[in-house]
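Dear Dr. H.,

I hope your travels went smoothly. While you were away I took the liberty of generating a structure for the chain from your last submission, since the lab meeting agenda had it listed for discussion. I wanted you to have the full record in hand beforehand rather than looking at slides cold. The sequence, exactly as received, is reproduced here:
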Amino acid sequence: MEASGKLHADDRIHHGFTFRSVLAEFRALRATVLRLYEESGHSDLTDVRRFNEAIDETMTESMDRFAVQTDMFRDQFIGVLSHDLRTPLGAITAGAALLAAPDDNPERRARVATSVMSSAQRMGRMTGDLLDLTRTRLGGSIPLKRRPANLQQVCEEAMMEIRAGHSEAVVQSRASGDLSGEWDTDRLTQVVSNLVGNAIQHGSGTPITLTASEQDDSVTLAVHNGGPPIPSELLPLVFEPLTRGAAEAGSQSIGLGLFIARAIVSAHGGQIDVRSSTNEGTAFNVTLPKAR
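The corresponding predicted structure, in token form, is as follows:
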């Protein structure tokens, strides 16, 4: 029962269950089994007592495991967030000190001001990611503002932002077919940015390919890099928070990019998956219906 309880808790955490929803699941299971037992005509209280003892033992182990894993996730998340916020906050503090000092060099002051703004925007993106994480973890979905849009234009806008922050990266983009639909363009730009940014981070300098194409009543978006493959044990968890590279040295994310990308795609009624191997590299594929 102990092993079953731990496996149950791990599975429910992976699928985003809350503490209350896990308890409700056990209550529903107990009520259903007891009702079926009563309807069967049996009246042996020994069987009922054994069943209740087994349910209580499994529930206790599951709740203990759930609490331990949740606390560990919280502590890890706070640690990663504190680490990643320290860098832009330090840049803002240093930049403010330089701007406050007497300086007749306007070019230097402009560079410092740009750096401060970039760091502030990065902190803003982190807090936005936290809000999205909170919405989805509480059982909600990413809010959307749908309007007629073109996926090619979304990709072009995202690429402008990406090239500004990763001038050294080689990103090739291709588009084909009718890529119009009803989507939240800001959110889709976030998906493209997160996927391409992840490819740059883990692509080891290999060229990145961004492909958008039409497929019947939907459009597909694919982002490919030729870097080291995702370890097989991490593939089922790659869309979970803090799974891959969140705490890597020099990382500029808090490990929420793929998690949020999946939430945005799901809110649009679409699907996202990943394939990764040594021979073929890593490819994230998104399918979006054109209409809601």
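Two observations you may find useful: Helices lie at 2-14, 19-39, 45-100, 106-137, 151-165, 185-202, 257-267. Confidence is low (pLDDT under 50) at residues 245-252.

With kind regards,
E. W.
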